[in-house]
């Protein structure tokens, strides 16, 4: 159980792409947009449908984290990787509230964009700190940069 075999498993998992699912998600998003634009569905219904459509992505993220967790030796790293996955689920209601406020004109487009930009920058910083800390906790942790480098050169 080393980094190389972990990279092979993650690469194989990432290469299982479902183009049909991506296409259907894009069509579903367009239908939701038009149904909101023409007031066919309420904003709350669209948010609930969007949550249901996003559940397969959470499942994929959870499976990917479980692959990483199999190769970790440190219990602290295993707990932290699980905590990071749970935080993704806990932040979902705040994300939905943010979108709902925009749909119902409780916040302006500029406020929506500023909150989104700020959240994106904070998420990028958090992810870098998280990966740096995980590498310190466990030598078997594979960072996204390492995985992308291995996938790029095909040595995994």
Characterise the protein shown here.
With 156 residues, the protein is mostly helical. The protein is built from seven helices and no strands. It has helices spanning 3-15, 19-37, 43-71, 75-90, 92-103, 109-137, 144-153. Helix 3 runs antiparallel to helix 5 (92-103). The longest helix has 29 residues, at 43-71. It is elongated, with a radius of gyration of 19 Å. The chain starts with a helix and ends with a helix.
Low-confidence stretches: none
Radius of gyration: 19 Å
The largest sheet, given as strand count, sense and whether it forms a barrel, is:
none
What share of the residues does DSSP label as strand, in percent?
under 5%
Q: Please tell me what the overall shape is.
A: elongated
Structural class: mainly alpha
Mean pLDDT equals 81
Number of strands: 0
Order of helices and strands: HHHHHHH
The span between the termini is 14 Å
Tally of DSSP helical segments: 7
Percent helix: over 70%
Q: Secondary structure elements and their pairing?
A:
Layout: H1 3-15, H2 19-37, H3 43-71, H4 75-90, H5 92-103, H6 109-137, H7 144-153
Helix pairs in contact: 1-3, 2-3, 3-4, 3-5
Keywords:
single chain, 156 residues, mainly alpha, 7 helices, 82% helix, elongated
Q: What is the gist of this entry?
A:
The chain has helices at residues 3-15, 19-37, 43-71, 75-90, 92-103, 109-137, 144-153.
């Amino acid at each position: 159980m080393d980094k190389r075999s972990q990279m092979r498993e993650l690469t194989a998992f990432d290469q299982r792409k479902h183009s049909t699912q991506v296409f259907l998600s894009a069509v579903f998003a367009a239908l939701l947009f038009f149904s909101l634009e023409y007031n066919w569905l309420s904003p709350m219904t669209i948010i609930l449908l969007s949550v249901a459509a996003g559940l397969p992505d959470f499942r994929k993220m959870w499976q990917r984290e479980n692959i990483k967790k199999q190769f970790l030796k440190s219990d602290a790293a295993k707990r932290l990787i699980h905590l990071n996955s749970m935080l993704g689920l806990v932040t979902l209601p705040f994300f939905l509230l943010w979108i709902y406020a925009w749909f119902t004109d409780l916040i302006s487009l500029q406020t929506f964009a500023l909150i989104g930009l700020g959240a994106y920058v904070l998420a990028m910083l958090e992810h870098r700190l998280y990966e740096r800390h995980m590498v310190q906790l466990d030598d078997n942790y594979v960072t996204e940069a390492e995985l992308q480098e291995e996938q790029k050169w095909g040595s995994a």
